[in-house]
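To fix ideas, we reproduce below one chain and its tokenised fold.
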Amino acid sequence: MAALYRLLAAQLQREIREHRWGAGQRLPSVRQFAHQHNVSVTTAIQCYRTLESEGLITARPQSGFYVRDTTHAEAGAELQDFTAAPGVVTNIAEIEQVQRAAATPGSAPFGISLLSPQLIPLTELQRSLHRATLKLGERLVRYAPPQGDKALREALAQHFATDGLALPARDLLITNGCMDAICLALQLTTEPGDVVALPSPCFSGLLQLIESLDRRLLEIPLHRSGIRMQALEAAMANPEVKACVVTANHHNPLGFSLSVNDKQRIAAWAAEYRCPVIEDDVFGECGFDLNRSLPIKHWDRDGWVFWCSAFSKALVPAYRIGWCAPGRYLLSAVQRWRAQAVSVNLPLQVALADFVNTGHYRRHLQRLRLALAEQLTAYRRTLKNVMPAETAISRPDGGFVLWLTLAESFDGMALFEAAAARNISIVPGQVFSSLGRYRNCIRINCGWPLERRLKRNLQVLGEIASELSR
């Protein structure tokens, strides 16, 4: 538990950013804080010192720790507001170019959002798979039920309930990963040519998916810590918009999570305007807080939120096991899934049910959250030292990517190409929008512990960026 202070610091950092602590407000004393969180005084001091080093709080002799003015302490450049019209996705070639570079064998792994094998409990997963194979017996030669194996759906339902999310097993559908769940949701809620709203910047894979389904895209502006809610409501109220895709927890690439109030408003608007919300929650269990951030689905009372997630980011992507809670679309979702996919790999479903039921998944998440909080801090500190001085770096509350904003005239694609020539993969900002935006931004994957080789790769990246800035 040596890194617990970092997890506590990340949680308190989020509370400060959400203005639950006002500028100038005195924090609990070290002893009070330690008692509140059932930790040692040493851990509490380390937590406060971490926040102090990041400029969020300040110590006053003989008085205690106080919150600094977060308008100056908050990291990450503000995003410009914009107004967009519906259109087709136009940057598929650039997205595919970046994906090819990220898949180059031996390249520094900053270009694809994946966890290091060091963070994945491979031995326990293999044991669960072995037990599942033995348990299945004759079922090894059969297809899984179209809705998914009952054991996995029940294991997930119990797992979610522990976090305060009530979703019975009968309301879940097992899929081949989160993207297949989102694809299914788009197929059920929209038709070719329809408009789909999507906050921008957004995960480039969603742009590819919308283009492949022949849907049109309406980009909704974000600010550095959330969605511009007035623009989102206007889109949801527009009859031309048939669905919207939203990430409420640990957004990729910006890393923020929406406030409870904003999640509640989105759920309410979905029902009021009868506009389906497709919630991409694939990073939902990768937060730095002690408790999981609840998805929008938690406040969905009328079934208009189609919640999608997977084991891909928090555990292992190769299994390709995800799930969705389709709400009012459950019956049609199962029917469509039966027709186009038949079923999902049964041994892997049973293995993951075993992994969840034995407590290995919960323990893994606890360790993972500690590791990610520590890794993101290390990456931010290193990037701050090696990148050009004007670079602004996001301050995520979960996930494992960082969003870097360089000088306005900087060319992120030029940095991507020069880094690729040195076998370093990154993602230029322009692939996160079809409007030609974010050209002076890049995204960095921080899913690998920052060991000596990777730290040297970041130093080289900083040298290239400084050269291009001249």
Summary: The first strand starts at residue 57 and ends at 60.
